[in-house]
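Quick one:
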Amino acid sequence: MEITKEKKGNFILLKINTEKLDSTLSPNLKAEFVMLNKEGENKFLVDLSNVKYCDSSGLSAILVGNRLCNEIDGKFVLSSMQEMVQKLIEISQLDKILYIAKSIEEAEELMA
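Output:
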């Protein structure tokens, strides 16, 4: 399973279990966000610790999740990004609009 999800308290933890968040996986991630959102979920923590590469479609999926949460007063947090993914987020200036945590523990505190 490339994406695992787990209900943890008041939020959903989505873990990306592949090294590439690209056009192969992005539609599935977007679909997960939309489905969970329709079920009333508005707080997502996305664990990117396994992701070494992300392209524009991956960023698009991340932004969809962020937008869905923001539309219903939720929270969207990315955690445990590897250096290359962190640089892409910063170059794209998405670090200014996304909540980013260095670790799962830090991210869970942001979700409280």
